[in-house]
Amino acid sequence: MGFAPLDPVLHNQLRLAVVSLLIAVDEADFNHLLDRTGATRGNLSVQLSKLKEAGYVEIIKGYKDNYPNTRCRLTKAGIAAFDAYVRAIKGYLGP
Amino acid sequence: MNSELTPQESLRLIEGMIGQARRSFSRMSFYFLLWGVLLIAAMVATYLLRYNTTGWQHGAPWGVAGVLGGLISAIHGAREGKREQVSNPMDTTIGWLWGSFVITMLLLIAFTVTGRADTTIVVTMLTGLPTFITGQIMRFRPLQLGGIIFWVAGGAMMLLNSALATLVLYCTAMVLGYILPGILLKHHEDGLRAA
Predict the structure, then answer these.
(1) Per the domain annotation, does B104 fall within a domain?
(2) Rounded to the nearest 5°, which phi and psi values hold at A38?
(3) Taking 70 as the threshold, does the pLDDT of residue B79 lie above it?
(4) CA of B110, closest CA in chain A: separation in Å?
(5) What is the rounded CA–CA span in Å between residue A38 and residue A32?
(6) Given this model, what pLDDT does residue B4 score?
């Protein structure tokens, strides 16, 4: 039995961390993702852009208390990709 | 935090992050403390004033506590909401649960004021709560609407005060609140099973 290929968009430490955080919430703002992942602003922005390009994450830019605020949420494609990734990973780890 | 991962590391990372996200609940203690103190005060006031009040005045301490608690909760909730960095589905569901409780409670208070004792009306109003919350948890709008229909039907039964109206409203609420969402849910489940 061959192993299912791992989605290269998700098979990256920071992108996987972001998607794993977002899978459990409706949406989270950029600073929350920054706190929880311990990433730098620049790196997080780059990885969020890649997730957005893949259609996995929706990025909503707005204002909160008159300051710019960026909120992120998983799209249906992102949820499906995460689900497939977890199933593939479990396949690698065996029964 | 950018390196390639082994499957074990991936799984550990996923579990860790999901665990962290699930701990991101809003702080609820404030509301329990506030309402606990206010409602004890209302109960004590009702007891102390029991010989000095008549009619609607009996309910005045509860009304004051309700309005005060509602205002403070709304102001506190709005402030907390601005600070929140995460919108958690559990927080949303808890909010809807308490909102549904308030709607049911207000309907029941209005009903008891009429002095009638009709179990059908009470049960119809109560049915709205779990129906609406089930729809909210399942993110299934027909059940959410079903819950609202039970509340509206209960309110209408109370206002119309007729056996025939109760019969028609109860059956209509059951068809729109249970049977129709049940049929739609069955189609949805059958579709999932076939996929």
Answers:
(1) yes
(2) 70, 15
(3) yes
(4) 36
(5) 10
(6) 66
Q: Which domain holds residue B51?
A: 26-85
- Helix count and strand count (H, E) for chain A: 4, 3
* Helix (H/G/I), strand (E/B), else coil: A68: strand
Q: What ranges make up the beta strands (E) of chain A?
A: 27-29, 57-64, 67-74
- Residue-wise pLDDT for A50-59, tens only, equals 999 999 999 9
- In angstroms, the Cα distances linking A43 to A46, A48, B85, B86, B127 are 5, 9, 20, 20, 50
Instruction: Tell me which residue in B1, B4, B16 faces A11 most closely, judged by beta carbons.
Output: B4
Over the stretch B13-70, which tens digit does the pLDDT of each residue have?
888 888 776 666 667 778 888 998 999 999 888 888 888 777 667 778 888 999 999 9
CB contact under 8 A, A14 and B20: no
Query: Which chain B residues are within 8 Å of A17, Cβ to Cβ?
Result: 1, 13, 17
Fold of A13-93: Arc Repressor Mutant, subunit A (1.10.10)
Residue of A nearest to B81 (CA): A64
Note whether ipTM > 0.85 here.
Answer: no
Interchain contact, B85 vs A38, CB within 8 Å: no
Do residues B101 and B51 share a domain?
Answer: no
Q: Which residues pair with B179 in a beta bridge?
A: none
